[in-house]
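USER: Fancy drafting a protein?

ASSISTANT:
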Amino acid sequence: MEKIWKFKNPVPENGGKGHAQFDTFINEVRNLNGKIKIPESVAKLLFMRGVTDYSKVFKFFKPTLDKLYEPLLMKGCDIATQSIIECIDAGEKVMVLGDYDVDGIIGASMFSLFLKHFGVEVSVFIPNRINQEYGLSKCAIDEAHEKGIKLLVAIDCGITAIDTVDYANEKGIKIIICDHHQPPEKLPNAYAIMDPIQPGCEYPFKHLCGTGVAYKLIQSVCKIKNDEKFAYSLLDFVAIATSSDIVPIIDENRILVNEGFNKINTNPRHSIKALIEKIGIKESKVNTSNIVFSLAPRINAVGRLGEASRAVDLLTSEDESMLVELATILDDENAIRREIDKTITQKAFDLYESNYKEANENCIVLHNSDWHPGVISIVAARLVERYNRPAVVLTTIKGSAKGSARSINGFNVYEALKKCEHLLIQYGGHCHAAGLEIEVENIDEFRLMFNDISNMELVNDELQPEVEIDMEIGFDQITPTFSKIISFFEPFGPGNPQPVFMTRNVKIVDDVKYTKTDAHILKISDSYSDKIWNAIYYNSKDMFGKLEKDTECDICYSIDKSFKNGYTKFVIKDIKIH
């Protein structure tokens, strides 16, 4: 689909309160700390990100641990902290339960290491995606009861588990919930609930992932135990989970991710080092991009195809020979997952094209009883990527249909499911992604209702994919200082994406190479300077044969610079040929 090039909200033009605010901002940050000269174009980038005064600039460029929020500001943290300390002091056993995705797996691994550090006997429960219930289930409660466990900590799940928490209470098991998903109107009767978006919670930052919420509990306990250094040693887990769960990399998340990446890139724990070496991530180069596209899929893969506990075994082990073996298992499982994913994705494309596309509906709802449940969330994401419509993909497990929903900007998929809840067995999630279960015989009615909702809330412009552009510049503005300051915008992610620029009247000045991995490699220049720049255009099969020497075009792109060898290249997002 042809992409719309859309400029983000610009800095106000001359005149008006907004422009006066920007002028003041420019004067404040033009000479940051008396050392770093900030070009006006960079100041505009900051301003458009909501960094609108000097104190915010300082926090943005120095996301350090002293700027983390006090954990006890989060509702429920005081009760949960006291409960954990009592278990530590009494030597009681604890069960840690996590969801079977990266956030849940990482969070459970982190929390188990934390408890073991204080001498607590820990049992970790990660449900099997294929044959066990999602999240906090009666199966987990029964296992905890059999082991004589009186406290269970649920991470990245539990906020909707009303019946299960009641069942745990009957068994004499206290439940602490560390979740970040949308709470229902009635909350579970848990011993303590930590969820920054629950009613009455005054925690100043609302966008932590499940692991991030659990980390605030760890931080609180370690502060009381005078062992904050150990809490900081776990930030590598928080950085991986936060990057993987696609939560906004702003404010406190930016601090957690930045400090976690610093730890991984300077002194990685043995388990993470074994995995990044197996993947082939270059030393000291871990960032949000290779976490999302390389490391996270391997942690996810074992849970998609079998027992997610194998990822927990890797992340919590210190046995180097076992680490190599487990890292190989994760890598092999990911390769198998990719083949299954590829096959089912193509079948989903074919099903949509042949049965539903001509209806020109604003959403996609597909069901096939034979599709592997471990990859349907990926398939839903692929459908969104290709057709730019909200997508729900379902398969049949034990007689009912279970699946995943993924959305586009402007459509809250959680709220859409809520409007269909009379047709659903259960559902949960947030605005961009959700999970659901439904009786097979209700799928057609659900499809009609879900489509009616999407037709009411989405207009045609929102169904055409967009490239969001920060600003138009000429290549002459890309100086070494400009590129270096842009690199300090990292870590990138939702809420703080890598800046995208647009340049007009670009010319391809050499023969174009097309790689086996579906990318064009270009050498380009523009009318503002004689310098030749290297560029790469990924996933550009549709441009094959259209890009050649002397082609004139406009491009939008991000800047990728390696300071180790001084090599700069542009990563092209889209091209419009003259």
